[in-house]
Amino acid sequence: MEMMKAAVFVEKNRIVLQDKPVPPIGPLDALIRITTTTICGTDVHILKGEYPVAPGLTIGHEPVGIIEKLGSAVSGFHEGQRVIAGAITPSGHSYACLCGCSSQDGPDNAHGFKATGGWKFGNLIDGCQAEYVRVPDAMANLSPVPDGLSDEQVLMCPDIMSTGFSGAERAGIQIGDSVVVFALGPIGLCAVAGARLKGASTIIGVDSIKVRQDMARRLGATHIVDFTQGDPVEQIMALTRGRGVDAAIEALGIQATFESALRVLRPGGCLSSLGVYSSDLRIPLDAFSAGLGDKQIITTLCPGGKERMRRLMDVVASGSVDLKPLVTHRFKLDDIEAAYELFAHQRDGVMKVAITP
Amino acid sequence: MEMMKAAVFVEKNRIVLQDKPVPPIGPLDALIRITTTTICGTDVHILKGEYPVAPGLTIGHEPVGIIEKLGSAVSGFHEGQRVIAGAITPSGHSYACLCGCSSQDGPDNAHGFKATGGWKFGNLIDGCQAEYVRVPDAMANLSPVPDGLSDEQVLMCPDIMSTGFSGAERAGIQIGDSVVVFALGPIGLCAVAGARLKGASTIIGVDSIKVRQDMARRLGATHIVDFTQGDPVEQIMALTRGRGVDAAIEALGIQATFESALRVLRPGGCLSSLGVYSSDLRIPLDAFSAGLGDKQIITTLCPGGKERMRRLMDVVASGSVDLKPLVTHRFKLDDIEAAYELFAHQRDGVMKVAITP
Amino acid sequence: MEMMKAAVFVEKNRIVLQDKPVPPIGPLDALIRITTTTICGTDVHILKGEYPVAPGLTIGHEPVGIIEKLGSAVSGFHEGQRVIAGAITPSGHSYACLCGCSSQDGPDNAHGFKATGGWKFGNLIDGCQAEYVRVPDAMANLSPVPDGLSDEQVLMCPDIMSTGFSGAERAGIQIGDSVVVFALGPIGLCAVAGARLKGASTIIGVDSIKVRQDMARRLGATHIVDFTQGDPVEQIMALTRGRGVDAAIEALGIQATFESALRVLRPGGCLSSLGVYSSDLRIPLDAFSAGLGDKQIITTLCPGGKERMRRLMDVVASGSVDLKPLVTHRFKLDDIEAAYELFAHQRDGVMKVAITP
Amino acid sequence: MEMMKAAVFVEKNRIVLQDKPVPPIGPLDALIRITTTTICGTDVHILKGEYPVAPGLTIGHEPVGIIEKLGSAVSGFHEGQRVIAGAITPSGHSYACLCGCSSQDGPDNAHGFKATGGWKFGNLIDGCQAEYVRVPDAMANLSPVPDGLSDEQVLMCPDIMSTGFSGAERAGIQIGDSVVVFALGPIGLCAVAGARLKGASTIIGVDSIKVRQDMARRLGATHIVDFTQGDPVEQIMALTRGRGVDAAIEALGIQATFESALRVLRPGGCLSSLGVYSSDLRIPLDAFSAGLGDKQIITTLCPGGKERMRRLMDVVASGSVDLKPLVTHRFKLDDIEAAYELFAHQRDGVMKVAITP
């Protein structure tokens, strides 16, 4: 049995590099040799025990690599091909997938849906912070990398680009909309870029960290609100001359940002929520207009599948969005524990790290 | 100055019939002589002081009547025409109207939106529990009643039919969907009818009152859940064999129904909220899948305007939905205080009352 | 090698029953023993040589049957299960499927789309007018029949119900719409039922055959226009008092109905086209308002996949649409040539035939 | 009676500057003193007698100016305010407006819709190539110009920006789509900018004129196809590696571009038509996949109304689209006949002219 290195969740506050067998594959799977991967904020939630996964699981859901082996029933790909796969790997054939809700992909029984069931890597099955990863339902998920794009150029496609853009897409942003994005971490920054791509003319980023504010401006923010400089709700209402925003994107996952997002929405607007929450939320009666304000709250889990990845890589190739500057630090897989240490504590201006086996 | 009788909010727990001047009209208005109107659950909220309006205001927002007089700038209608107007009377020319959000119609300044601003009758201006009512922006709001339809047949169009149907419409119900409606008051019953009209194949009504359950079955409910006979969430999950519903319509406005609606939604489903809430709401973390379940919460205020009214009256004329049986009691305007007494206490199996000046 | 009987296209005007080997299956396939199937108008196009298929191909794309054998990579089903599959059998994993266009499913190369590529049975691969049929991509396509539904009750789901309903769905029909359906063959009749399910209040069926007019009324038509009794465009404009219809569904596939559909559309309306055309079409300048009328022409190929089938069978089970009366004649597979003879010439008031091996 | 100068359609091939009375206004109108206007391709159709208007009509539908006088029933604006109005001036209160189809605004009778009825200026009523113009339904149509924007910066908003963008909007362009725009006149160039604003990653412009190709690249085209250098269909299929485009925007109005647009569409794609056609169109059977390709043909007339104008001016103010370079020539109103001469013959690299009274 061939062995490999993998970042494994052992217990709360301990993700460690271990030797594990290279995963065997079934007829519908592919084995990918990882060339580059990264760490996500969600992985930090796992590390801290805030999002539960099974001890012994390999973490990581953002793979760039090379096809090492294909399952016996897989066609349309060949070994040696350079590919990515989304963080979410829909089967393509579940009831959830077939009704357009592939991120909530469940087993094929009467139910057919499972909350967050499409997120398999580093959640339900071994992930990709390792030398190799098994990709389930390979025909729906392997997405060839166009010639000329580097690993780091496509490294954001599997999760943060897909998630951030979906925040703008699900908000139904129209040309000329005003949009606010609460929190300018990697997801929020991608939501800013997504809002610009969808035609928003006013894009307000909310954060207090200078380097993130600068990156937001670079990606399309027209205004920055620093919540340490005054009530963000008041600042945003002033910027929109009392009208409020057409869409508010929540990209942090706490009560304060959720509630502020609801407050700055114009009647009829959409709160597009991307954050991973860790406690109950409260909807204040006034911010909700007693239920009569035509407001919408829409939550979204990262869209996956090879067609999504193809489109995102096309956006990168077109040059209209450049996320490479988000990669601020680089580590070998052997040093991934140090990468977690840096990333979890947000030291040294880190935005995203690149991990190479 | 000609005088008329009108039901006026005096103070908490006092709506009384008073003499008031017949309202003067401006160039864009019409004066309607009311032939039939009704009392809404929202009027009871006003009566109880739960929804604030100005003392002295005439209550009521569901007018059927005859054009008595037209403003100088109004064309396309003639005096003596039999019409209804929606509970919501959009101007047609505000920023809110022109971006498809007419119930949140605000004044024409930079803001342009006002939460619930399209609801004018018995909220911002004098309402129609009176002998006459002034209809603002008459050209956008007067809707001629087709020959052959009685006052009582169209009495539900201005509010409960429009509101109930919108609960189904905004949920985006598709052919073959499963839908649950929480609370089978007049709005919930119309939501049941709306879900059937939109093609749902499984429609579950939740209520404990026999007469409402029966009416729900008549309007299209395929299953009834009585929450006094066991946990409604468990009953609904059993009825859908663990899948949950595609859409849950909240038609009461309390935490228990809102929360249950969220719990019975399949991942990716839509909670369509119609209730008027009177306190903050709580979103339980698990029912919300930590924000990762692709769930939507959509609130809706009754759609108005003459095109909406025309369509609803067409539905009535086609015979596909018959809401006349909802009118269980009839009163003269002179006896409206008795009507409030009956309706507010839900005595004698009352569903809706007809009030005739 | 086990043999079976199958209806095979030999050459123009000759579909004959032949002995053929029972199809072998691959890892993703299922073998279904057919218990009931039917003949479609498209099969008659094939018979007449108007739609080209390869000589030697087994015809038929509407299977009801029992799982005989499952491919090695198929899970979630078991042998002996009673199932249907759609006329269109999307793979679930192609680019076309993953961008929501599964009827145009193509091979997994750079292209990823193929016009009508999702229609495999009796078009690209052997069909189901036979004792057995191979179902490709079984996990995406096998749909268990609910207990209590007969073969004939679900026989319309694979094609005509899915196609007819999609004509109404893609037209974006709203509550209160007026809709016309041109031609009341099986597809048109299902479009009538679909328009009713989507909430149309005025549904005009156009046909000259009495039995079809009667069936249309039963399925929801509120008006019938007989084109032998006067210009159908004039009749429809009169019925809508000069307004025109919100949606016009074309269910025949000839210039006259296509053009009339365009003429009776109100500005901003939608022509939803279901017909299989056999020659170029002409768009008259005036009917098209010189391209400035905000009109839409939307064509649709039957939606397939197990989720679609599940929903349609749910509609049948709910009792809201009953298509069993469309089955006017029954034949053994051994007599299928006689069935073609009857059906192709539309003798004896035939609507649909049931074929049982 | 005060007099003014106005460009009047006299007969085929004669638009001349004449003295006419300053238009009187009704209670819902406004009188605008024109500061800048322009000539549209449609005006040239009128000049050539290809689009019929009444002799004596003042031409022009793209006004920038100052409120001179307000009708007695108009509120929310004040004299002296700098405004634009859209080429299309919806009433706000018609049935068409209230069902979201305001460009097809008709009189308030049973019909309620009129093809292209929202286009009033220079079509149904006197237009704005004059010193003054009457704006109907002023409250729905006057849109204040933000401080800091010049006349020429907002001159494209009333028509070509709104029309071009709508071609992209109605095509439902998604992030990562491939789009082709046929013909790079002012409308086509704005469609290119609109496709970019909606997130297309591949934008192919088709034209043979160098200056237009260059402008298209500047506005977002990623590829140019010159139809004099080879069959445009083949070139586009090659650029998309055989896949075809997700959306094809027709911006000329002739059979050749319409047909090519249909041919290069992937199955399931959308042909978004903006051109003003002057003869019947032919849909080739193969390009239409016999009606089974899930293709859509959507026509759009320029959206108007003050909210649309507000949004477009916001886009200009945000700096994301700069259309000022389209203004290649400037004329005084006194010289408008020379401007027509230049523009109608497309001399001297003209794209748009600015006309100032």
Automatic annotation (TrEMBL), chains A, B, C, D:
<dbReference type="Pfam" id="PF00107">
    <property type="entry name" value="ADH_zinc_N"/>
</dbReference>
<dbReference type="Pfam" id="PF08240">
    <property type="entry name" value="ADH_N"/>
</dbReference>
<dbReference type="InterPro" id="IPR002328">
    <property type="entry name" value="ADH_Zn_CS"/>
</dbReference>
<dbReference type="InterPro" id="IPR036291">
    <property type="entry name" value="NAD(P)-bd_dom_sf"/>
</dbReference>
<feature type="domain" description="Enoyl reductase (ER)">
    <location>
        <begin position="12"/>
        <end position="355"/>
    </location>
</feature>
<protein>
    <submittedName>
        <fullName>Threonine dehydrogenase</fullName>
    </submittedName>
</protein>
<keyword id="KW-0862">Zinc</keyword>
<keyword id="KW-0560">Oxidoreductase</keyword>
<dbReference type="InterPro" id="IPR020843">
    <property type="entry name" value="ER"/>
</dbReference>
<dbReference type="InterPro" id="IPR013149">
    <property type="entry name" value="ADH-like_C"/>
</dbReference>
<keyword id="KW-0479">Metal-binding</keyword>
<dbReference type="GO" id="GO:0008270">
    <property type="term" value="F:zinc ion binding"/>
</dbReference>
<dbReference type="GO" id="GO:0016616">
    <property type="term" value="F:oxidoreductase activity, acting on the CH-OH group of donors, NAD or NADP as acceptor"/>
</dbReference>
<comment type="similarity">
    <text>Belongs to the zinc-containing alcohol dehydrogenase family.</text>
</comment>
<dbReference type="InterPro" id="IPR013154">
    <property type="entry name" value="ADH-like_N"/>
</dbReference>
<dbReference type="InterPro" id="IPR011032">
    <property type="entry name" value="GroES-like_sf"/>
</dbReference>
